[in-house]
Amino acid sequence: MIALLLISLIPILMWTVQTIQLRHYGLPIRWRIDAGDAPRPVRNVGRAVTQVALVSVILCYPILRGQSIQHYYASLLPPTRSVLLCVHGAAASMLFLCVLYLVWIMTDRLRVSVHQSRRRWVRRLILLLPTAVFGAFVEELLFRGVVMADFLHTDWVSPEAAVAVATLVFAGAHYVRSVKRRWTIFGHLMLGWLLCVAFLQTKTLWLAIGLHAGGIMMIMGTRPFFRYRGPAWVTGASIFPFAGVVGIAGLGILTAFIANYYGGDQTP
Amino acid sequence: MKTKVNKPRCAVRLADSETDMQVMNAYLEANELAEAVRFLSKDDDDLNADVCAGHFEQVVFFDLDALLSAIWKDDIEIDRWLALKVRIDLASVPGTADWHNLLPIVADSFKHWQGRQRRRQIIASIILSVIALAALAILFFLIPPAT
Q1: Calpha distance B63→B75 (Å, rounded)
Q2: pTM value?
Q3: In 3-state terms, what secondary structure has residue A3?
């Protein structure tokens, strides 16, 4: 339960810092974590505090359990042949998204046109790999390596319950800040379930990191060139192609594949 | 005594080529629209959002093809523009106002746009298929899981 306590401190810290910043600039207090239209320093400080809080939870959790940081994460990220699960995960999520995009192109639900400046999309493509790997690493260390692992370490919580709670925490965390679209929560729940099942089946974070990073790479890499024609509940939208009905069904199939293909001790 | 007339708030959808931009700039100068807010063709959706939000009452496109391309692409909601009575002008007007003669221009624009879209879809499909095949190879042949 330490993990849940630690992670619940993050939004409290985010809101407190936002409030102090807003007061500093003479702006009214907001009850939501929403610095979208606030002055740039408020947004920048908010982002920095969020990142520091996330990393702090990742680093503090093993210490609070009485383990060294290195030893704890080495057990979740063993430098063995299981590292190849990361490549498998990336391949699986890229295959899933490629098939989804091909279906949308064939059914004319996706327009292919460059809708960002050349400088912007070139920069996005150059930064694609580090962005995807960093994002996937941090999120997986936090949601699977800390939150889900903590539940799995608790005797009275079954693995299924650990998957369910970690899925809810993962999905909910994406809506702590004020967001443009809330209907994407079902996609996040399904994505959380997939990543939790991947962790449960392999007992390491490699597969989940690969799945996550592959997904980020495909979505961010295609974003400057694809525009969804909707309806959004079918195709998803923006950076959420997995949040439409078809995407959610596809994630369900991918989860079933992961559960069966990597069941037991099947490191590549 | 001169009466000050409030000019409509104007947006300009810039032309893609250098030559067309020269024609466009000359048009804007001649019509005292040099101060109009400018949008690149990649920002058609931003232009549409601003027009639909009532920020502009007049929009200038380079020619009929530029206007029609934005409509074919679903980037602008022309029905909403018309409902808002947005004035649409062209810097390079077709030589005729007779709709019979406009028909070939519209058909040509649509054909041109369809061809371009088809090419893009083919390229995207090829790239996605290559990635999908590579992923399949990794999953089942190159790095098979231990059994």
Answers
A1: 16
A2: 0.81
A3: helix
Given a contact cutoff of 8 angstroms between Cβ atoms, the answer to whether A202 and A213 are in contact is no
> Model confidence over B72-116: pLDDT tens digits?
887 888 888 988 888 998 888 877 667 667 777 788 888 888 888
How many whole angstroms from its chain centre is CA B136?
38
Chain B residues 94-123 with a CB less than 8 Å from chain A? 117, 120-121, 123
Q: Mutate which of B71, B118, B138 to disrupt the A interface (most A C-beta within 10 Å)?
A: B138
Distance between CA A3 and CA A72 in Å, rounded?
14
Please tell me the number of Cα atoms within 13 Å of B124 on its side-chain side.
30
Other CB atoms within a 10 A radius of the CB of residue B35 amount to 10
- Environment class of B96 (CB within 10 Å of its CB; exposed 0-12, middle 13-18, buried 19+): exposed
Any CB–CB contact under 8 A between A98 and chain B? Answer: yes
The enclosing H or E element of B61 equals strand B58-63
The token pair at B18 is 């250098």
B129 contact residues in A (CB cutoff 8 A): 98, 102
d(CA A110, CA B114): 14
pLDDT at B3: 47
Say if A122 is an interface residue toward chain B (CB within 8 Å).
no
Amino acid at B117: Q
Give percent above pLDDT 90 in chain A: 61
Does residue B147 belong to the interface with chain A, where contact is any CB pair within 8 Å? yes
What are the structure tokens assigned to A246, written together? 């078809």
Distance separating alpha carbons of residues A135 and B91, to the nearest angstrom: 47
Q: Answer whether B73 sits within 8 Å of A225, measured CB to CB.
A: no
